[in-house]
Design a protein that fits this description.
about 450 residues, 4-stranded antiparallel beta sheet, flat
């Protein structure tokens, strides 16, 4: 079902769909917060958003939603007083991501327009306002919370006060070191790929569609089905070799020369430039590595693994001086978890952030064991040969302060932040004029006292 795939992206725009359908209905002011009204249509729009998100309310949505909208208006009002706002760059980045998701899930710009019954620019503008409000509220919350710094004693106090049934269960975690060798494609294979990309350039110059060729031939799964297109991107979001090419393109009718990055070989075409961001399309092709090169790299790693087992060199030394994995080389081969910022991975995270191949190998290993060489596909889509060492395994357990200090600290900081926000809302609620024009006798509000200061 397409609606399930689009999720929040569509929800942000359902406002326009509902408004169009209800344009002949007389609206009604349900609440007034400060000098800002909450309309019946606002509540209906939010209810439809929740419906499409699959959200289930623990209570009457016509009580819950107006309170949520009122709280949002409190934040936005304070943000205006304090001159807090989302940066144009943050709004732009989130908007581009949002619009790209729409196109990816619905099909193309024409289908997006047909789906919502509005022009693409109208859809974009409505989404921009929603996104700006959302990011402004988040920025205001960050200002209210501030920089929470906890001492070890405070973390210990938080942990000791946790009820037993609130102490989280920590799944089995592993710490893994890796050494990789990248088999090299032959010069003949590299020249074949470059020649094929040059032939694509010639075909495009002769009238064929760049997008169609990208759909058929590009080996970039993230853009191939969209005709090789990426939305507006900043220079810092691209690898330097790619950025140097696409940011120097000036004529949308011209195709770049063939160029190389760590992902393979490309040709690219400019779509549009906006300030310091660029929209482009590209075709990626990766030279294929033959079995002989894979065998050669595997044999080298097998010999290295034996030397490590015999004590001739440590795994960490070999990772530093021999491994071709630049992300772990300076960390003695130790793989970092991008989610937690530590070296610990749950098995599912290891598969998600490193490689399913690594996860399968590690699952059967003992602490300190060196694996046999194996081939794996990196997150950048490259096939490499690798050996890994299981540095540590922490079996699944109920969290303890000694084993899980960083996680407990994060939980404590999060709780303190929530408490600050709740206190701020309760204080702001008392100082803000609120008038409710509909019966609320059956409502149980999260923050009692709405309208008591009118």
């Amino acid at each position: 079902m397409i609606l399930k795939k689009i999720a929040l992206s569509l929800c942000l725009l359902l406002v326009s769909v509902w408004s169009t359908a209800q344009k002949n209905v007389i609206d009604e002011v349900l609440w007034i917060v400060g000098d800002q009204p909450i309309l019946k249509s606002d509540v209906e729009k939010a209810r439809m958003n929740a419906l499409y998100e699959g959200r289930k309310f623990q209570g009457d949505p016509y009580c819950i939603i107006p309170e949520e909208l009122a709280i949002q208006k409190l934040f936005l009002h304070q943000a205006q007083i304090d001159s807090v706002t989302a940066t144009d760059q943050a709004v732009f980045q989130r908007l581009e991501m949002h619009m790209n998701n729409l196109i990816e899930n619905i099909g193309d710009k024409a289908k997006v327009e047909e789906y919502f019954g509005k022009t693409f620019s109208q859809i974009r503008e409505m989404a921009r306002e929603n996104i700006k409000d959302h990011l402004t509220v988040e920025a205001m919350k960050e200002k209210i919370i501030g920089d929470i710094k906890l001492t070890p004693a405070q973390v210990r106090q938080y942990f000791n006060k946790l009820p037993q049934d609130s102490i989280p269960y920590i799944p089995t975690q592993v710490e893994v070191e890796i050494i990789t060798r990248e088999p090299k494609a032959s010069n003949e294979e590299i020249e074949r790929v470059k020649a094929e990309l040059r032939s694509f350039t010639e075909r495009i110059n002769n009238g064929e569609s760049f997008g169609m060729l990208a759909r058929f031939y590009s080996e970039d799964p993230g853009s191939a089905r969209k005709g090789g297109e990426y939305g507006f991107t900043g220079r810092g979001e691209l690898v330097p070799e790619f950025a140097n090419v696409v940011f120097n393109l000036t004529d949308p009718k011209k195709i770049s020369k063939v160029f190389e990055t760590e992902y393979g070989f490309h040709i690219a075409q400019l779509i549009e430039k906006r300030g310091d961001r660029v929209s482009y399309r590209h075709i990626l092709m990766k030279p294929k590595v033959n079995d002989q090169e894979i065998t050669l790299a595997t044999n080298k790693l097998d010999s290295l693994a034996n030397d490590i087992r015999r004590g001739k060199i440590s795994f960490e030394e070999a990772a530093t001086w021999i491994s071709q994995d630049k992300d772990t080389r300076n960390n003695h081969g130790l793989i970092a978890n991008p989610r937690s910022g530590t070296a610990r991975f749950e098995m599912q995270q290891l598969a998600e952030f490193v490689s399913q191949d690594v996860a399968r190998v590690v699952e059967r290993m003992q602490i300190g064991e060196i694996s046999q060489p194996f081939t794996m596909t990196t997150m950048k889509g490259k096939e490499v040969c690798a050996i890994v060492k299981l540095k540590n395994r922490i079996d699944g357990h109920k969290a303890t302060l000694s084993e899980d200090y960083q996680r407990m600290k994060s939980m404590a900081v999060e709780k303190m932040g929530e408490e600050k926000i709740q206190k701020w809302i309760a204080d702001k609620q008392k100082k803000t004029y609120v008038k409710i024009n509909v019966p609320t006798d059956g409502c149980t509000f999260q923050y009692p006292g709405w309208g008591s200061n009118k």
